Amino acid sequence: MKQPVSLREGMTVHSADGAKLGKVVSCQGDGFIIEKGVFLPKATQFEYDDIAEMRGDDIYLAHERAQLADANWWSKREQALLARRHRMTPATEQGASTTTQGAVRTGAEYEKLGRAKAPDEIRVPLAEEEITAEKHTRDAGEVRVHKRVVVKQKQITVPVMHEEVRVERVPVEATSSAKPLAAETFVETTVAIPLHDEEVEIHKRAVIREEVRVTKQTFQEEQTATTDVRKEEIDIEEPKGTRGHLHPPAP
């Protein structure tokens, strides 16, 4: 498959089940390279045949997250790619590559070539998983501030006025008895004297007494996360009957 016209650097790559793998950092003739991320411990090259669908700036591969996390799947994939490239290489180029100075092939390739010539060097890649951390914001709860109304009695003292009557008997001097009597003498009469007092009328109005300020603060703390990582190691089996031919690699 040739490079799609719309594929470019910076596009986001996802697995078939939607897991985000990283961004495209390079487009080459035989494939494209995805940056190192959570599921890819190092920058990884994929072929254009690995693309199942493209939606805008998103690329979806034909492989699910479980496959990409399986070391056996990667090993089988690498062997299949080597076998396919070997079939596509012309016979003249195969012969030349075995005699080229500094050429490096895997053991499987030399078996396919009929073990015509034992290599001076065989390289066995060993992979190791690295871990990275991503942070996501989540809801940790909420704080509710509820304002309620409390009713209580409050007393206030106000001075008020009221009127009363006082009755006095005052003796009349003897000289006053000579005055003529009024026409109402010996007539029953009633005199009305109005009395007044004050009553209290209470008025209420709302005033701001104080305010409560609620502030949200952000704090940083360190949290330790633990996971299992895989690492490939190599075991050397020395042929029987030989001694001192193999030098195990340094750990």
Provide the fold topology.
Blueprint: E1 12-14, E2 20-27, E3 32-34, E4 44-46, E5 51-55, E6 58-61, H1 65-68, H2 71-88, H3 91-99, H4 107-112
Parallel strand pairs: 1-6
Antiparallel strand pairs: 1-2, 2-3, 3-4, 5-6
In words, what does this structure look like?
The protein is low in regular secondary structure and 251 residues long. It contains 4 helices and 6 strands; from the N terminus they run E-E-E-E-E-E-H-H-H-H. Among the domains are: 12-68, SH3 type barrels, CATH 2.30.30.240; 71-112, no CATH class. A 6-stranded mixed beta sheet has the order 4-3-2-1-6-5, with no helix packed on it. Strand 1 and strand 2 (20-27) form a beta hairpin. The relative contact order is 0.10.
Secondary structure category: little secondary structure
Please state the average pLDDT score: 78
CA-based shape: rod-shaped
Helical coverage, percent range: 10-25%
| Main β sheet profile | 6 strands, mixed
Q: Oligomeric form of this entry? A: single chain
Instruction: List low-confidence stretches.
Output: 91-119
The CATH architecture name of the domain at 12-68 reads Roll
Give, in spatial order, the strands making up the sheet with the most strands.
Answer: 4-3-2-1-6-5
Instruction: Calculate Rg over CA atoms.
Output: 52 Å
Top-tier CATH class of the domain at 12-68:
Mainly Beta
CATH topology tier name of the domain at 12-68: SH3 type barrels
Strand content: 5-15%
User: Given the structure, what is the number of helices?
Assistant: 4
Number of strands: 6
Distance between the termini: 41 Å
Q: Please identify which CATH superfamily of the domain at 12-68 we are dealing with.
A: PRC-barrel domain
Secondary-structure element pattern, one letter each: EEEEEEHHHH
